[in-house]
Amino acid sequence: MTTRRTIESLDEHKRELVVTLDRLLGAKEQNLGMIRNLLVDLHHADIADVLDVMDPEYAVRVLDLLDSETASDILAEMEETARTPLVELVPPHELAELVEEMPTDDAADLVGELDEAAAEEVLSHVAEEERQEIRDLLSYDEKTAGGLMESDYVAVRQDATVSMAIEAIRRAVEEVESIYYVYVVDDQEKLTGLLRLRDLLLSPGSRRVDEFMWADITSVPLEMDQEDVARLVQQYDLAAIPVVDDSGRLMGRITHDDIADVLEDEIEEDLMLMAGVSSDDIIERSSLRIAGGRLPWIMIGLVSALVAGLIIDNHEQMLEQYMVLAIFIPVVMAIGGSIGLQSSTIVVRGLATGQADLIHLGSRLLREMRIGLVMGLACGLSVGAIAWLWQGAWVLAVIVGLSMLMGILVAATLGAVIPVLLDRYKIDPALASGPFMTMSNDVVGLLIYFGLATLLLRWFNYAG
Questions:
Q1: What's the pLDDT score for residue 286?
Q2: Are 435 and 295 in contact (CB under 8 A)?
Q3: Domain ranges across the chain
Q4: Considering 47, 81, 245, 309, which has the largest number of Cβ atoms within 10 A of its Cβ?
Q5: Phi and psi at residue 276, to the nearest 5°
Q6: Among the residues of 237-323, which ranges form H helices?
Q7: The CATH number, out of the four listed (3.40.30.10, 3.90.550.10, 1.10.760.10, 1.25.60.10), of the domain defined by the range 7-147
Q8: Which residues, listed in sequence order, are joined to residue 254 by a DSSP beta bridge?
Q9: What is the pLDDT of residues 49-98, one digit of tens each?
Q10: Does the pLDDT value for residue 283 go beyond 50?
Q11: β partners of residue 255
Q12: What's the mean pLDDT in 294-313?
């Protein structure tokens, strides 16, 4: 997560705990035993929630009261925006002890949040082997499989027996946080298969693992984007997925809990981008930088509004003669924009999950057009009836009703097409769809409305 939580986001029990801890830590005579008792029965994830909203100086004092294993688990669960100012208060040698307790992927994430000098200072206190593993992980892009993986796993050779594999699990249990599979490699460390724990437990100890290993396994390359990794894990319902280099050597694994974090972050990022903002805005302190990031998309909205104004100005004489038309301009513009945004949101989500692409554009387009037709008929008939009852003019009812029908149909169609085309040309659809949809729907909606009004008013010789 990239956003910092507030105390209001916690449940009542955790809010009360935050208040109590703040009071105890702020007292002149602190009862450290009482503070420990408040935390002793809590899961480390719950303590992380509490520390996320506390003052960093108080939060680091809570960590000092806990053993290093528990403290490292809490740090791994905390949000980056809350954790970064907290770890800056921890002496490097103490932080190194916590880093050594963490799985390598979490350790790399924490070290990567520090500035270069602080990171080197912490790593200098870490054991050589783990220090190198962390540096290797930090060399990969954080949004790729390499940046997401942990280098701790259990692997055995192809000629190993079941007894040898079980012994390897026993040796690794202190280092590997969760063991879902045992990987099988050849003499060059190339991945050749995997073993399920169930199969190991049910097989004789003398049996060779290559006799019953799963050879048809799904693995991912180091450079694969984390969203694509998440799709594979979801598609095949995997507890963990191995990561290999270009030659097929086993480099690490990505577990399902990391995938859950990826999906959460991607959903948050897409939702914020659809609003034209970035999650970095929350931790960015420079107002100029934040404004610079948002301004291009606001300018698209400004251009849209100016074009809409020009269209209205171009039909000034019509509006002077038929003032009643002006009443329904906001309705025509707003409903089309809402429908288009709904369609684009669904398609953007489909692109994020791999369920929508250029190949399936035709079927997606037909589906959204059918939906748009149904909603257009419902809205068009409703608004047309209101116009007729309100103004007593059946021609106006026809104009408004048809405008709603056509505008919604076009908006639903554009909502299905625009995100896919943006994705095709490497433009983030989550970021660009909203502004483009707003601009196109406003302009197209007004053109349809005034075009129908010009045509039908003359056709039926309506005098107003």
A1: 54
A2: no
A3: 7-147, 155-255, 284-459
A4: 47
A5: 85, 20
A6: 256-274, 287-314, 316-321
A7: 1.25.60.10
A8: 241
A9: 999 999 999 999 999 999 999 999 999 999 888 999 999 999 999 999 99
A10: no
A11: 240
A12: 79
- Main-chain dihedrals φ then ψ at residue 123, nearest 5 degrees: -65, -25
Percentage of the chain lying above the pLDDT 90 cut: 44
Summarised one tens digit per residue, pLDDT across range 336-377 is 767 777 777 777 766 665 555 555 566 767 887 888 888 889
Burial 99-125 (b: 16+ CB within 10 A, else e): bbbbbbbbbbbbbeebeeeebebbbeb
In terms of average pLDDT, the best of 2-6, 141-145, 158-162, 273-277 is: 158-162
Region 448-460: mean pLDDT is 85
What is the sign, positive or negative, of the torsion defined by CA atoms of 444, 445, 451, 454? Answer: negative
Tell me the whole-structure pTM to 2 decimals: 0.62
Of 406, 452, 442, whose CA–CA distance to 333 is shortest?
442
Residues 6+ apart with CB under 8 A from 227: 262, 266, 352
Q: How far apart are CA 16 and CA 37, in angstroms?
A: 15
Dihedral angle computed from the Cα positions of residues 42, 44, 49 and 50, in that order, rounded to the nearest 10 degrees: 50
**How many angstroms separate the CA atoms of 229 and 150, rounded?**
14
The CATH superfamily assigned to 284-459 is SLC41 divalent cation transporters, integral membrane domain (1.10.357.20)
Sign (positive or negative) of CA dihedral 222, 225, 227, 232: negative
pLDDT higher than 70, residue 278 = no
Residue 297 contacts residue 276 (beta carbons within 8 Å): yes
Cα distance between residue 182 and residue 169, in whole Å: 8
Whole-number Å distance between alpha carbons of 43 and 365: 48
Q: Look at residue 295 in the predicted model and tell me its pLDDT.
A: 72
> What is the dihedral angle through the alpha carbons of 128, 130, 131, 136, rounded to the nearest 10 degrees?
130
Listing DSSP states for 391-456 in one string gives H--HHHHHHHHHHHHHHHHHHHHHHHHHHHHHHHTT--HHHHHHHHHHHHHHHHHHHHHHHHHHHH
CATH of 155-255, one of 3.10.580.10, 1.10.600.10, 2.40.180.10, 3.10.450.50: 3.10.580.10
Whole-number Å distance between alpha carbons of 44 and 41: 9
